[in-house]
Amino acid sequence: MSRRVTVTIDGKKIQALAGEKLLWVALENGIFIPNLCALKGQERPPASCRLCFVQVKGKEEPVTACTLPVVDGMEVKTRSPQVDRLVKSAFELLLSHHRLQCSRCPKNKNCQLQIIARERGLKLKLNRLKPLSREEEIDDSAECYALDRSRCVLCGRCVWVDRHAAKTGTIGFAQRGIARRVATFGDEGLGGVASPEFQRCVEVCPVGALYFKKKEERGDPGNEK
Ligand code: SF4
Ligand code: FES
What we know:
- The strands form 3 sheets. This protein has a 5-stranded mixed sheet with strand order 2-1-5-3-4.
- It has 2 domains: about 5-90, Roll (Ubiquitin-like (UB roll)), CATH 3.10.20; about 135-215, Alpha-Beta Plaits (2-Layer Sandwich).
- The chain is built from 5 helices and 9 strands, in the order E-E-H-E-E-E-H-H-E-H-E-E-H-E.
- It has about 220 residues and is of the alpha+beta class.
- It starts with a strand and ends in a 13-residue tail after the last strand.
- Helix content is about 20%, strand content about 15%.
- FE2/S2 (inorganic) cluster binds near residues 49 and 52.
């Protein structure tokens, strides 16, 4: 059985299981840390969105909370000038991948980008970067859900859930660098997906790229506050 430890986050003393990742300890205790790519239960979180930086006492550089196992006596601050700078840059980079048309998005008001912007006082618009123009057709071929790649921030949550939980073998990442995209097997489109288990992949999309067509089927993707 795992040992219980005490950590201090933003001055609040919290009991947690040794080895648990700091991101989940904070979120489950009402302390917000921006996050997009992590899912609870991942043995090796991808740490690709670079949003969950925190400052740990004794470490010079900020570290990602989704990869940081808690140890007894750990003292953490979720904000510092260095953390704020890193989060701001990572956020803008993600926004440059994401077509901003919130009023027409199925995830409007429940989007993780909107939540992070609100919590950290960040603007939902590009300042230094130009938008990555990706005029891709929406994959509307399935009855219940659709994929709009122009909103995809490549967080990898859907791909991870498909590989490790839903196991439908439907989606994966294709290509590299700027051309990287979520692809369906044989590029056949989501209409060819027979497994109802695939819904689990749709549920975890934090930004409305992979979404349920009907409003009543749209749930909470988890990880949010
Ligand atoms: S479709 Fe959604 S969950 Fe999948 S990689 Fe893109 S943003 Fe992430
Ligand atoms: S949640 Fe930690 S890097 Fe994305």
